[in-house]
Amino acid sequence: MSQPELVTVTIDGREVQVPKGLGLVEVALQAGIEIPVFCYEPRLGPPVGACRMCLVELEGVPKLQAGCTLTAADGMKVRTAQTSAKAAEGQDATLEFILVNHPLDCPVCDKGGECPLQDLTFRWGPGNTRMEFPKRTLEKPIPVSPAIALDRERCILCYRCTRFSESVAEDNQLVTQNRGASSVIATFDDRPYRAPFSGNVIELCPVGALTSTQYRFEARPWEIQNVPTVCGLCPVGCNVAATTREGKVKRMLSRNHPEVDEGWLCDKGRFAFTHLYAGDRLIEPLRRRQRSGLEEISWEDALDEAERLLRESGGRIVTALSGSETVEQAYALGRLLRGGLGAHTAVMPEETSQALDAFRLPLSAIREAELVVVLGDEPVAERAPVVELWLKAARRAGAEVHYAGDAHESCRRLAGSDDELGGRLRESERAILIWSGEDGAGGGHVAALARELGFDGKPGSGAFHLPRTANGRGVADAWACSDDGESEAPEQIGLLIVSGDEAAADPNVRVLAERAERVLVTSMFQSLAAGWADLVLPGTSYLERDGTTVNLEGRLQRQRRAVMAPVPDVVAWIAKLAERFGVELSPHVSVVFDEIGAKCFGGITFADVHERAELPPRAEKVSDTSKVSDTVASGSGLRLVAYRPLFSGAAVERTPELQFQKPEAEVQISPEDAKARGVRNGATVTVSSNGTSVELRARIARDLGAGVVRIPRDHAGDLHATVEVSA
Amino acid sequence: MGLKTMLLAGADEHDLTRLAEYQAIGGYKQAPKALAMSSDDLIAELQQANLRGRGGAGFPLGRKASLVDRKSPKPKYLVVNADESEPGAFKDREVMARVPHRLLEGCLIAAHAIESKDVFIYIRGEYLTEYEILQAAVDEARGAGLFGDVNVTVYRGAGAYICGEETALLDSLEGRRGQPRPRPPFPPVQGLYMAPTEINNVCTIATLPAILELGAAGFDQIGTPSSPGTVLFSISGNVEKPGNYELELGTSMRELIYTHAGGIAGGHQLKAVIPGGSSVPALTARQIDVPLDYDSLGAIGTFFGAASLIVVDERCCMVQLALRSTKFYMHESCGKCTPCREGTRWLVQILEKIERGDGEAADLDLLRKVCDRIEGKSLCALGDFAVWPVQSYFDKWHDEWVAHVEQGGCPFGGESSLEGIFAPSDQHTHSPVAEVPA
Amino acid sequence: MIPELRALGERYPDSRTAVLPALRLVQEQNGGWLTTESFEQVGEALGLTPAYCQAVASFYDMFHLAPVGRHSVEVCTNLSCALVGAQQVVDAFESELGVAPGETTEDGEITLRTVECLGGCGYATVVAVDHRYHQHVKPDDVPEIVKELRGA
Q1: What's the mean per-residue pLDDT of chain A?
Q2: Which residue of C15, C16, C58 is the best one to mutate when testing the A interface, meaning the one whose CB has the most A CBs within 10 A?
Q3: Nearest to A138 among B429, B431, B434 (CB)
Q4: Which of A4, A361, B208, C80 could form a disulfide with B106 if both were Cys (CB 3.0 to 4.6 A apart)?
C-alpha cells in the first residue's frame, strides 16, 4: 500500500497534517477540535449534509459550509464556531430551528442524559426559545415494531435511521414519507419493521425518537452501568455493552469493534437478553423421584447427588457439550471428568479444525475484498448475521459477491483447474471464501480449497467457516487441553452429562439419553430439562459469567459478568465437585484461564485478553489433513436446505419482542424451479419426500439457485434431504 | 436592444412542431456542423460564445461543458432541465410547445460537446400537453434518423418544485425522492447514476443551434458583452399584455413592462416588480430603469434568475404577498435540511400572526431575524429563495409592516388583491399522518 | 400489470428510474390514486420494497394516496394567478361544485384542488381540468367548465 498524500489544513489557526481527502470532522478531531454533528455518521455511507449542525467558515467561500461534506485539501483554512462568530451563529440557528418543534419532554424521555441533542444544545445552542406557536403534535408513540417505538415529535429528521435501512442493512423498510415540514419516518403502511438488524436504528437515533420498547421507562442514565462484554448467541461474537440497573440487564448496546462488527448488532443479540428473566428459568436444582417427577433440592444436596451419579457410573460417562460454554467452563468440565474420572468421551456440537488458522483474516477484510464466494445455501444472515452486513458492504464497495450453491459440490468445482471463477480466485490478491453450510469439517474443506487456490502468502485473501455454535472452537480446544488421557467410548452409557441448553435441545443428544442409564443436565430452563433428566443443575447465561470465547475468525474474546446469576457459578461448582475427586481446580476464572493459556493459547494470560481483542496472526504451519469435500449430493429432485433460523432457539423463544420476527412457514424456491412447477409466489404448495410431506407457502427467492429449496428447520417436519414441490 | 427572435424564430409563421416545417426553415442543419467538429473545438466555440445558463444561476454553458469528465470510462449524460416550476416562469413551456425540434437539435449539439450518447429531458409532470408535443417531435426526428446513435428520453416529473434544483432533479430521475445532494461532487464529475453529467435549462440548450449558425463571434454581437444573446422573458401579474417576449439581453425593464407588456393593467400604479421569478428580491417602481441582463440586476441587489417578471400593482398587501410566497416555499421545501424545513414553517406562522393583526413590534424583529438565520444555511438555494423575497418586501415596504402591527390588522382592510388567497399547503397531505390537537 | 411495469423498468439504464412512470401507470389504472397493493405491485415489478415506493410517491404532489374523484379540477393560486383574481375562480368552483378545495363531490365525480404554480402565469388564471390547461379563466367561465366536465 502506498502512503496517502499528506496535506496541511489550518483549522481555527492550528495546522494539522492529514491524509488528502480525510473528512473535515476527522481533521478537526486530529487538531483537538470538535465539530458537532447530528446526521454525520461515516458508517452510513457518504455524508448527506442534512442537519446543518456542522456549519463552518471555509476561507474563500462566502457561505457557511457543512463541515461534514468537506474533505481535506492542501492549504485549506477552516474556522469553526470556536473562532468564527459566523459559524457560531450558524450552529445556534440550526439548534434553534431543530428545537422549534421538538417537544423538550426530556424529563420523561429515555434518551435524556445520554442525548446528543441535549448535549449539543447545552454547548452550542440558544439558551431560550423565541418560538411561541403551538408545536406540532402527532400521534405517539408509533410502534415501528414490537421492539421499537417511534416518537415523531422528537424526531429531528437527521435520516440516520432511514440511511441505515437503505445503505447498511439494505432492507429499505424504514423510510421517509411526505415532504418538507410534513416529513415523517415510517414503515410501509405502518407494518412492523421486520428485518434482522432493525434494532440498530435505536442506537443511531441522536434523540429520543426511536426507542427500545424493552427499555422504555426502565432506567435513567445515572442509575445504570454499561458492562463491556461479548455476545454469546452466535459465532460472530459482536462486542456489546450490557446496560444494567439494580442487578438486572435492561438493554444491549453495541461496542463497535471495527474488525468484527463495526458497531452493528442483530436483533437477536440486541433484544434476546430477556431470556434471563424467563418464567421457566431454573433457580433450584431438580432431582428425579420415583413416579412423582422432579423435586427441588438444595445445592448442597445437588452436589452430593452429582457426586453419587458420577461415582456410580464407574467412568462410563459421555459428555454432550453445547458449544456455548466458555473456554473455562469446558476446561473445568474436562478437568473434572477426564482428569478425575478418566471419562474422555465427549459429543461435540460440531466438528472444529485448526486448518483455517492459516487463512485467518478479520471479518472487516471482507469489505476490502474484490471477489467473495459464498459456498453453501444456508443464508449467511441466519447463521452469522453480521457477516451478511460485511458482505453487503463489500458489494457496495464494488466487490463481486458470488453465491456458488451447494458447498461441497462448488468446493470441488472451484478447486478444479478449468473453472472460470476458480481461476479468478487464484489470480486475485483480495479474494475471500465463506463456507455457509453444514458438514464443512470445521472449516477444513474451505481451508483446503483456499490452499488449492494459492491463498497462502496472499495477506488479502482468506477464508471463513460459519459454524453453528457460538464457541464450538473454544470449547473443543479447552476440552482437548484439559487432559492428555484417552479412552474408548463406553459401550453402555452409565451417565450422560448434558452441558447447556443447545445440547439439551439437540435431538441427537436425546437419542443418546435413551441409551443412558442416568442423565445429568445443566440447563437454564425447566422445559428443556424436564422429562428426561435424573438430576438438573441450573445453568447460567453468557451475560452472567466471566470467561473467554473464540469466535469464527479465531479471535479470543472476553465475556464479562454483567449481572450476578440467580444460581451458583458453573466453574465454581465444578471446582467443588472436582475437589471431591481429588482434582485441583481453581473456582476463579482468571486462574483457570491462565492454566489454559499456557497450554493452548501460546502462554497468554487472562489480563492479555483486551476489551477490544486482537486477532492472532495467521498460523504459519498448521497440522492440516483437511481436504476438499468429497461429499456428493444424492438422489434426484430438489435438495432441501433446512436451515436453523436466526430467530429461533431457547433465548428467542423467551423474548416476546422477537416473536414477530420468527420465520413464516414457507418454502423458498428459485424462480426457475417455481416456473417449471407452476408455483406462484405466495401460493400454498406441498413439499414431499419419501412418504412424508408438509404444506407450506411458496416464496420465490431470486437469490436462490435452481435445484435447491430452503425451509426453516422448524417447518421442515420429517422431510428428507431430497424433496419435490408441487403446486 | 429590444425584440429579437432567435429561440422562437419562425414560430409565428410556421408550425415548427412539424419536422418538415422546421427543416424547411433550415432546421437540423446546425447539428451536423457541430458533429463535424471535435468535441474540444466545439467546447471552445461554446466557451467563446459565452452563453449564460437561462435556468437561474447564469453559469456559462461552455464552461460547464468543459468541466465534464469526458475521460471517465462511464457513460456521459446530458440532462435537460425542463422542470420549469419557478412561479412567474412559463417560457420553457412555450419553447417546448412551439419549437421542440430546436430544443432537440440543441441537445444533439450539447451531447456531442460532452461526448454523450444519452440525453434525458426531465419535464415537469404538469406539462402534459407539452410532453406529448415533445415526445411526438422526438419520435418524428428519431424516425427520420436525425439522432444517429444518440438516445433521447423524455422523462416526466411528478409534481415537486425542488426537482428544478439540478441535483434534486438527478435524484428524481434516478427514481428517488427528489432531494438535493451535497456538492462536491458536482454533476460534471458525478451526476446521473454517478456518471459525468451536464445539466442545462431548456432555453439554454435551444439557443445552441443559433450559436452554431451565427458562430460565436456573431452571437456575441447580440445582447451585451457580458450577457450575449436573446432571452425569452416571461412577464405576468398586473400588466395589460402578459406573456413571453423574446428580447435582446440588456433591453430595459421599463421597455418590457410599458412598451411590450402594455403597462400596468386597468390604470393602476406600479408597486413592485419581482424580476427573476418569485424567489428573488423585489424592486420598487423607482428601480425599473435597469437593463435586463445578469450583471445589471445583480448590481441593484437582485437576480436575473429565471428571466420571469411578476408585476405587482398598488392594490397588493406586501405582507399577504410575503405570506403567499412563503407558503409556497414551505410547501416545496423537500425536508432534507433543518433551516429550510423548520424555518419556512415558522415564518408562515409569524407572517400569519402579523397579517391577522396579532403581531407586535417584536414579531417584526423576529421575522427578519428568522429570515437571516435561514439565509445561507440551507443545503440548496431553496432556503434563500424562501427568504429573499420576504426580506425585500420587509425592507422596501417597511411602513406597511409597521402599519399591520400598529393598526392591529391589514391596512388594506380586506381590499388587497390577494385577500383570501388559498394556498395548497393548507390542504396538502401526501399520506395521512395523525395530528393530535395540542 | 406486472409485465407492463417490468417493461418500463427495462427502458432505463437503471430500473429504479422507472418508479415514477410505474407509479403513474398504476395510479391511472386505479382510479387516480395509489393503494397498498399499488406499491406492492410496483415494488415487485422493479425489485424495490413497497415501503420505498410509498416513500417516493408521498414526496410528489401528483401522486394521490387517498381516493380522488373521477375528474380533477386544479386551480393555480400562486402569485401571478392570485394577483389577477384566482381566489374568485376558486370561490366560483366551490359554489358550483359545493365542495371546498381538497374535497371531492358527493357523487365521487370531481375533486377540487388548489395547486402551486402551473407555469401559465401569463395566462392567469390557469385551471388544469384533468391535467389539460384552461387559461385566462374568469369566475364567469366556471359553470361552463363544470358543465362540460359533467357531460364528459
Answers
A1: 94
A2: C58
A3: B434
A4: B208
